[in-house]
Design goal:
165 residues; 6 helices
Length: 165
Amino acid sequence: MNSEEIDSKAASIGVAQTFLIGLAGGVVATAVKTLCEIISPPRAPGVPSPLGNVIDAVAMLTTGHPLPEATKHWAEPVVHFLFGMGAGAVYALLVRKIPLVRWGYGVLFGIAFWLGAHEIILPLMNLSPTPAQMTLWEQGNEFVSHIFFGLSLEFARRFFVRKAA
């Protein structure tokens, strides 16, 4: 199936099925991003991840205490995948209305996601260092892993659209 046929089929799929395709694509893309981070960790050992900081912030708001390390050990990957699934669903729904979002087979989305989350929102919320406080390695690593996230998301979306009834 070529790109035009995939686009035509994707347009004929309902919103609910597109949402589910996005969730599934988010699982695939988050697995790829996680693998990127295992191969090339974006932070020095012992430095908390921005997601770990988010989890602690939510725990502090709800319980008054940070999440115990033993709980955070399993909670962080679960939240990472849930967040990735949400991003995948948003991506799939956006692509229905704004095909430009999938430019570069999802690279544009990956870059926009990195820019919005890691360069703007997380630093503004004091959940990660500002770009000026990060090394080029840290920024580059997150940038590249988000490109792989976007690529994987688009390839997974296309795969699931092809398989859709």
